[in-house]
Amino acid sequence: MNFVKLIKRSIILSIGVVIFMQLDYYFILFIIYSFLGWLMEITLTLIEKRKFVDRGFLIGPCCPIYGFGALLIMALLENYTDNWLVLFILAMVICMVLEYLTSYLMEVIFKARWWDYSNKKFNINGRICLETTIPFGLGALLLVYVLHPFFSSLIMNINDTILLVVATFIFALFLVDLIVSFNVISKFKNAEIKIKRDDTEEITRKVREYLLNHSKLTKRLVNAFPNAQAVFYEIKEKAKEKATKIKKFYNF
């Protein structure tokens, strides 16, 4: 019986290895583009604020949204490489949708607004704006015509066994980083539960103070997202306000 279980586990493991061997190419590309996105973020921050800020919600040098965005662009727009203008426009649309959904989901899950473009022109709910979307479109052109051909060729020239070992090692590190980082981010929710104030700006300040004093990891997270805003109580207070108005209306 134990021998049968061993055979089954070996088969499952073998299938998993085969599947991962098919995915290791894309995973390495994902990591490369995530790293380049992180590099771009800290460079822009360095130019703007003249100081190094470790951007991104992961502890390691990685911004997954850039990795996902790059793979989506390559997967969905491979038939439009002959027309750079169409590619540029469609890439902007993909980046806008991805950034908007990422902002929304992170706000729903962690009850915090991680970036806000409300003070910029041509923004949608403060989640996306034209000022950042145009550079994403230009970056997509660089990705399609320069970066992807280079990195794709480079990875394909690596021995399959070596590529699998490297991909497995990096995946293990990425998974650990993801678990630890989500644990750190969850402290935003914990901080909001402990802080009960009506003013959103005051809540944001208190959340930042709580996290800065909690640990080095939360301090790094706050510095990475200086414009993060706690929105949980704002939503709660708005709901109370609407409920009060409805109550007054019916009592009248």
Summarize the structure.
With about 250 residues, the protein is mostly helical. It contains eight helices and four strands, in the order αααβββααααβα.
Which features characterize this protein?
about 250 residues, mainly alpha, two-stranded antiparallel sheet, 8 helices
What does this molecule look like?
This protein is mostly helical and 252 residues long. It has one domain (2-251). 76% of the residues lie in helices and 3% in strands. The chain has eight helices and four strands; from the N terminus they run αααβββααααβα. It has helices at 2-49, 64-76, 84-110, 130-156, 160-194, 200-212, 216-224, 232-251, and strands at residues 112-113, 123-124, 128-129, 229-230. A two-stranded antiparallel ribbon has the order 1-4. The longest helix has 48 residues, at 2-49. It is globular, with a radius of gyration of 22 Å.
Q: What is the average per-residue confidence, as pLDDT, rounded to a whole number?
A: 76
Large-scale geometry: globular
- What share of residues are in beta strands? under 5%
Number of domains: 1
Structural class computed from helices and strand pairing: mainly alpha
- Roughly how many Å apart are the termini? 75 Å
Which segments are poorly predicted (pLDDT under 50) over 5 or more consecutive residues? 196-201
User: Strand-and-helix sequence, N→C?
Assistant: HHHEEEHHHHEH
Report the radius of gyration as a whole number of Å: 22 Å
Helix content: over 70%
Supply the number of helical segments.
8
Number of strands: 4
Biggest sheet statistics? 2 strands, antiparallel
Which sequence of strands runs across the widest sheet?
1-4
